[in-house]
Write the structure tokens for this entry.
Amino acid sequence: MTHPTLIRRDHGHRPVLLDLSLSLATGGVPVLPLRAGKVPFGNCRACADNACGGRPNMKTPGPCACPRPCHGWAAATTDPDVLASPAWTVAWSRAEAIAYHPGGAGVTVVDLDDADAIAWARKTLPSTRTVATTRGEHWIYRGAMQSANGVRRGVDIKSSMSYARWFGPGTGTITELPPAVRALVVKAPAAVRPVRSTVSAPAGDKTCPHRSPAYLERGIAMAEQRITEARSQVHATVYRTFLAVLSAHGRCGCLTEAHIDRLFTAAQSKGESPRHCTDAWANARTALGV
């Protein structure tokens, strides 16, 4: 049965899904439209294959400037001006449902596809808010993590860099993300530290204006905060933050492994992989020539 809030009607010239999306966005939930088949709208030609998503081989990595919802989960936003823009209004008028980026909303969805998966969760996981879906249930926990499909039969994890269909607010009290859920995506302990290359001071420099502990500490702390408080476009936020840090401290030898560890840890707390952190750091260095 279709959820009553997802029946598509028009309120004058404005799609009802747009109204619901704006309501969710006001509550800090980054949303995007889904077309038939529960999939995001297709990429535009300029953004085919995530071409502007900041991959290592791109000359100008960073966020997409395309006004259309063309990046799947990364298109999810809480910006009402974007959601109600002409291009997005067309998408909402053709949409069949709403999706949201759980990681951007600070939550993790344990997607249980059938009765067996639900029975397993009730025996294994702590209770939390549940949402009835077309085939099973979504269990919602507070906290973001890495997403993964097929962690066991009938169970997917949807959080950072993923999207989940909105079926309503659900019932029950949301609880903290437990270690048992995080453990579902852990295949093996990390054996290799990401390579991120610290930056050496130019030859002949004996002093550095940034070596004041207070100045450097404030800069790193602000960078950590910017990343951890990101509610949407986490990829782009991480890249821009790395770029800002390297712009301020990348040519004077201030940055140490400890500083970079803090930045990578902040990014990974939002669900970014070590590989993405390494790529974003390398892209930022390349863009600045450091």
